[in-house]
């Protein structure tokens, strides 16, 4: 019962920090339509692949997923010519369990989401500042 509540909480947090949607009510015109679903899929992929999420013990599973930041990035004219309509960088934080050190540990991941007519794709992204998703240099 806790997992559905956590997923709902994550969605509410995600919605609160989402880029502004169009006000016309036409989701086909919202350049960020579908991004929330892609971030939820990213969460599932982290649970399936991250070393901090490998434990099967109930008190050691990955939890407390939170989208710490999302920021739109510029689409270059060359990218626009290739059909790219949006770039968004996001950072997600979570708690897991380090099997080597036998202790809880926080994890973070950053990704860049790119939207084309075919939908969203995700690529790993280097570290970003949690406050604004700006690139660390």
Description:
By secondary structure, the chain is α+β, with helices and mostly antiparallel strands. It has helices at residues 2-16, 35-49, 77-81, and strands at residues 63-73, 86-98, 103-116, 119-124. The protein has a four-stranded antiparallel sheet with strand order 1-2-3-4. The longest helix has 15 residues, at 2-16. The model is unreliable at 4-14 and 20-24 (pLDDT under 50).
Relevant terms:
137 residues, alpha+beta, four-stranded antiparallel sheet
Short synopsis of the structure:
By secondary structure, the chain is an alpha+beta fold. Helix content is 26%, strand content 32%.
Q: Beta fraction of the residues?
A: 25-35%
Please report the number of helical segments. 3
User: Helix and strand succession?
Assistant: HHEHEEE
Structural class: alpha+beta
- Rg for CA atoms: 16 Å
Helix content: 25-40%
**Integer count of domains:** 1
Mass-distribution shape:
elongated
Uncertain regions spanning at least 5 consecutive residues: 4-14, 20-24
Give a topology summary:
Blueprint lengths: L1 H15 L18 H15 L13 E11 L3 H5 L4 E13 L4 E14 L2 E6 L13
Antiparallel strand pairs: 1-2, 2-3, 3-4
């Amino acid at each position: 019962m806790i997992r559905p509540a956590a997923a709902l909480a994550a969605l509410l947090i995600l919605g609160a920090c989402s880029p502004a949607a169009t006000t016309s009510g036409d989701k086909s015109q919202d350049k960020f339509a579908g991004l929330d679903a892609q971030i939820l899929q990213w969460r599932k992929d982290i649970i399936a692949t991250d070393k901090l999420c490998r434990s099967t013990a109930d008190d050691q599973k990955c939890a407390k997923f939170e989208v710490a930041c999302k920021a739109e990035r510029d689409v270059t004219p060359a990218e626009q010519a290739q059909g790219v309509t949006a770039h968004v960088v996001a950072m997600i934080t979570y708690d897991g369990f380090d099997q080597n050190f036998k202790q809880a540990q926080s994890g973070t991941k950053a990704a860049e989401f790119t939207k084309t007519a075919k939908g969203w794709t995700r690529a790993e992204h280097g570290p970003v500042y949690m406050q604004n998703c700006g690139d660390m240099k």
